[in-house]
């Protein structure tokens, strides 16, 4: 029998509100977690958004290409001198990538060719010195910071002794002991007194890193000293060292030019910017272009490495972001 107890109000509601199906919303799951980045991944992400980094990177890639393949940028011989061109040809800025683009020096040699080929020696000195200094200073700083005790005392006192020696004057004394000053000799002389800063920076970083929880846990689990140093301490203490080394690279290139200018660095027949600046010092009044171009390339290179070091420092130091 039909339900007769239904009231008039219920009938009105049914007429106004048609029957609908109750849709059950799917249960919202946990939001997808953003993939966490490591220190180096986060630094690379930050570097990619810095115009200063890309400007420095483009300049350095170009300089490295010139140093590696100078024959692609000029066909002139940097040592081929013609006295008939003795300061007679001024820079011909319309003759791009030709031998007389920058003019000729006091011996009639192409300044453009010497600037191009001089890139190799200057870059080699800067990169070679930085590699040696980072390896020696980083190793000593890591040992001093991790082991402490008498090892730290001995390394720290030796570092203080070398740190007290004037860098440029000490390098001049070392180079004066050699009759033939090749690129590797200049690298050795610069590295002989340049490792102290890297040692101090690495020592401080290792002292901080070895107190971290992951190092304590690795030591408690029985990990060996070598594994702890290479797998846990070094990767987390390397960032400040890389920053200092990148900035110092430009300083080593400038130091080589200074030593060559003083007659104690590289010398002919080696082609470098410092050698060209030294040979042009007597003609700077009447022919400033002879010194302008090698000095300009030197300044541009040092500027590029300093910009790169600043960008890397800002990317690796969270406090500066």
TrEMBL record:
Compartment(s) of residence: Cell membrane
Enumerate the UniProt keywords alphabetically.
Cell membrane, Membrane, Transmembrane, Transmembrane helix, Transport
Q: CDD domains under this entry?
A: TM_PBP2
Tell me where the transmembrane regions lie. 53-73, 123-149, 161-178, 184-202, 233-255, 291-312
Enumerate the InterPro entries for this protein: BP-dependent_transpt_permease, MetI-like, MetI-like_sf, OppC_N
**Taking every annotated instance into account, which residue ranges of this chain make up the domain ABC transmembrane type-1?**
119-309
Q: Where is the composition biased (Low complexity)?
A: 12-31
> Could you state one GO cellular component term attached to this entry?
plasma membrane
The record's region (Disordered) falls at 1-36
Q: Does the keyword DNA damage apply?
A: no
Its membrane topology is listed as:
Multi-pass membrane protein
Stated family? Belongs to the binding-protein-dependent transport system permease family.
For this entry, the protein name equals ABC transporter permease
Write down the species. Streptomyces sparsogenes DSM 40356
């Amino acid at each position: 029998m039909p339900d007769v107890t239904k009231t008039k109000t219920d009938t009105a509601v049914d007429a106004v509100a048609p029957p609908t199906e109750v849709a059950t919303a799917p249960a919202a799951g946990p939001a997808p977690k953003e993939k966490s980045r490591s220190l180096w991944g986060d630094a690379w992400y930050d570097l990619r958004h810095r115009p200063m980094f890309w400007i420095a990177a483009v300049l350095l890639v170009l300089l490295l290409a010139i140093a590696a393949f100078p024959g692609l940028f000029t066909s002139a011989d940097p040592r081929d001198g013609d006295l008939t061109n003795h300061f007679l040809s001024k820079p011909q800025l319309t003759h791009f990538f030709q031998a007389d683009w920058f003019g000729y020096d006091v011996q009639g040699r192409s300044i453009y060719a010497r600037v191009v080929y001089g890139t190799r020696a200057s870059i080699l000195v800067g990169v070679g010195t930085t590699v040696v200094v980072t390896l020696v200073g980083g190793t000593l700083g890591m040992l001093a910071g991790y082991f402490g005790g008498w090892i730290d005392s001995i390394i720290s006192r030796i570092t203080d002794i070398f740190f007290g020696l004037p860098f440029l004057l000490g390098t001049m004394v070392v180079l004066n002991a050699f009759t033939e000053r090749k690129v590797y000799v200049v690298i050795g002389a610069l590295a002989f007194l340049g490792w102290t800063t890297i040692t101090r920076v690495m020592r401080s970083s290792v002292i901080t890193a070895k107190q971290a929880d992951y190092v304590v846990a690795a030591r408690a689990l029985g990990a060996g000293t070598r594994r702890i140093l290479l797998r846990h301490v070094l990767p987390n203490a390397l960032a400040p060292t890389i920053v200092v080394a990148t900035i110092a690279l430009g300083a080593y290139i400038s130091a080589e030019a200074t030593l060559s200018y003083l007659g104690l660095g590289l010398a002919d027949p080696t082609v470098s910017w410092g050698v060209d600046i030294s040979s042009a010092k007597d003609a700077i009044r009447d022919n400033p272009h002879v010194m302008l171009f090698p000095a300009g390339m030197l300044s541009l290179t040092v500027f590029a490495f300093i910009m790169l070091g600043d960008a890397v420092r800002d990317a690796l130091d969270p406090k500066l972001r």
